[in-house]
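Supplementary Methods S3. Complex input for the zinc ion-bound model.
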Amino acid sequence: MSRVASLLTTKRRAFAVLFTLALAGAGTAYWVGTGPEDLSQYPSANQSPYRLPWTVGQSYRCAQSNRGIVSHRGPGRFAYDFAMPVGTEVRAARGGAVVFVIVSHDGHGLRRPNNRLVIRHEDGTLGHYLHLKKGGSRVKVGDLVKQGQVLAASGHVGRSMIPHLHFHVTDSSRKSTLPITFSDVGKDAGIPRMFKTYTSGNVQPYPRAEQTKTRWQRSGVWWLGAESNRRHKDFQSSALPTELPSQHSVIKPGTTSCGKA
Ligand SMILES: [Zn+2]
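Predicted complex, serialized as structure tokens:
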């Protein structure tokens, strides 16, 4: 082998080593710098009022969790992205009052406006559902919705790289996202993690008193079941907020990108 050829081989080897080191460094930075941190700030999943916002039994991948790679940083760090085909039924992660709906936009890109639906929960917090399909809302401002109720069709609108649903919760000031868990996520401390797939358990909850009843009693097949259903309805309506804020006092239009709270 000539001297020049040997030098080239050495250079290539050095490049290969450096490249591998850089990849390993980037990989380490990725694992350390993304995903949920300090799990003690998250409420316990057992008592979480949230369930995954799609139909029970269906499974979707978490495309981006808290502190993501392309967004979900700073004030938006507690957001979740779930990859799902356009048109998937989005269901209420938690019940409340519909305070904002915009589904008039179409198309995706860095500067494309977003579609968004917002639910005000009984404790004043707000659940935000983004990237919805154009014209895909099944509810309107002022509606009271129960957990598990269909809200909209998912989409691929606004600052969106793949068809997905973005979900996050804020307090009433909307300044920052809040750490939340999902009671139907039985692993990972109730906090969906990037690239992992989760199956929804988002079914209508029964009031505590009803949980001790048998399945027959709850089914409504005989009169005890009917009585149980009546009380269940009473519970549902009493659990919902009674006063509705005007949509403009809560939501400022324009803050529609994926990463923003
Ligand atoms: Zn997102």
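The two ends are 62 Å apart (CA to CA). The mean pLDDT is 82.
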